[in-house]
Design goal:
Layout: H1 2-11, H2 18-25, H3 31-43, E1 47-52, E2 55-60, H4 64-78, H5 82-91, H6 95-109
Antiparallel strand pairs: 1-2
Helix pairs in contact: 2-3
Amino acid sequence: MEAQVLAALRQAPGPATAAWVQDHLGDDLAYTTVMTILSRLHAKKAVTRERVGRSYVWTPAADEAGLAALRMRRVLDSESDRDAVLASFVSALSAQDEELLRTLLERATGEDPGHTTGPGPGTGRPRTETD
């Protein structure tokens, strides 16, 4: 349902109310259900909200891929041994997915393969020799 609500918000001409989302998704969802989904998406930082009058208008902050990435990050953050989780994840990747991950990491860090300076992955800080 979260993906459906996000899809509806992406189709909105601008920030949308919960009532607009409910109307756009059809009569099968109760207003309170839509509000619950929007609130959960907000807690996951998948949507933003702004108070307008007595209610909120909602804007997507993430698409379906972004929402999946948020879920993956939550799982990783909940584990005590991040290294083991990431190692297990990477070892299970297909050769094509592994290459894609390498390409994405290189693009994110602005590095050439094998280069050891520049920002560390996801850190926003320069990589050091100990990284």
